[in-house]
């Protein structure tokens, strides 16, 4: 699994799923950036050195965290620059699951990956997701096969647990829940 980072990414959006992945031996996780290794500054100013190259062909799942909302946010800047949305669009292939947390769904939408598809994001950005053509549905996590989206910030934990359950079974997800002392919230809406 890869988590793509960018300047302005929201820490909780990527730390939640990564904390879950870290509880499961079978998962290999890597942070990546587009176009390649560099230092990324998160939305609270934490500098993270990302050493792995952008290699979407090496991943079964790519998680896209959110990065705020509105003018000047990390997400709006990435949409304006087009580099990350274009890379995500080019990465799409059979067998790859693209997942997002919070406003990360807007980056998938800007890549043209949510049009006419069931999806969700943080409640403040639902109208923008609709404007991109996404079919907004209620659910903390919405699983539409190769597109899995999650609502607001803390739903990243639920996304991570759902992905573990989907790929490795409910026992693996329950074990991660137990270690994290976290009980899943809300609904996982499966559309396929």
Q: In percent, how much strand structure appears in the residues?
A: 15-25%
As a whole number of angstroms, the C-alpha radius of gyration is: 15 Å
Using the coordinates above, name the CATH class. Alpha Beta
**CATH architecture group name:** 3-Layer(aba) Sandwich
Shape: globular
Count of helix runs: 7
Strand neighbour order, sheet with most strands: 2-1-5-6-10-9-11
Average pLDDT, rounded to a whole number, is 96
The counted number of beta strands is 11
Give the % helix: 25-40%
Q: Write the H/E string, N to C.
A: EHEEEEHHEHEHEEEHHE
Describe the structure.
This protein has 192 residues and is an alpha/beta fold. It has one domain: Class I glutamine amidotransferase (GATase) domain (Rossmann fold, 3-Layer(aba) Sandwich), CATH 3.40.50.880. Helices cover 34% and strands 20% of the residues. It contains 7 helices and 11 strands. The protein has helices at residues 11-21, 74-81, 83-91, 104-110, 126-131, 155-168, 170-180; strands spanning 2-5, 30-33, 38-41, 47-50, 61-64, 97-101, 118-119, 135-136, 141-143, 147-150, 188-190. Strands 2-1-5-6-10-9-11 form a 7-stranded mixed sheet, with helices on both faces. A two-stranded antiparallel ribbon has the order 3-4. Strands 7-8 form a two-stranded parallel ribbon. It is globular and about 40 Å long. The model has no long low-confidence stretch (mean pLDDT 96).
């Amino acid at each position: 699994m890869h988590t793509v980072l960018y300047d302005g990414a929201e820490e909780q959006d990527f730390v939640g799923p990564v904390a879950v992945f870290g509880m499961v031996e079978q998962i290999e996780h890597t942070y990546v950036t587009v176009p390649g290794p560099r230092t990324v500054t998160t939305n609270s100013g934490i500098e993270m050195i990302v050493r792995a190259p952008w290699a979407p062909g090496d991943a079964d799942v790519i998680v896209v965290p959110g990065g705020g909302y509105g003018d000047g946010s990390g997400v709006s800047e990435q949409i304006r620059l087009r580099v990350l949305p274009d890379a995500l669009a080019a990465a799409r292939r059979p067998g790859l699951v693209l997942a997002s947390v919070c406003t990360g769904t807007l980056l998938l939408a800007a890549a043209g990956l949510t049009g006419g598809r069931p999806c969700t994001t943080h409640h403040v950005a639902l109208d923008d997701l609709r404007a991109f053509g996404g079919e907004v549905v209620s659910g903390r996590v919405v699983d539409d096969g190769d597109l899995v989206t999650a609502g607001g910030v803390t739903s990243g934990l639920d996304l991570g647990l759902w992905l573990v359950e989907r790929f490795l079974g409910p026992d693996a997800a329950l074990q991660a829940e137990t270690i994290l002392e976290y009980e899943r919230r809300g609904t996982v809406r499966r559309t396929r």
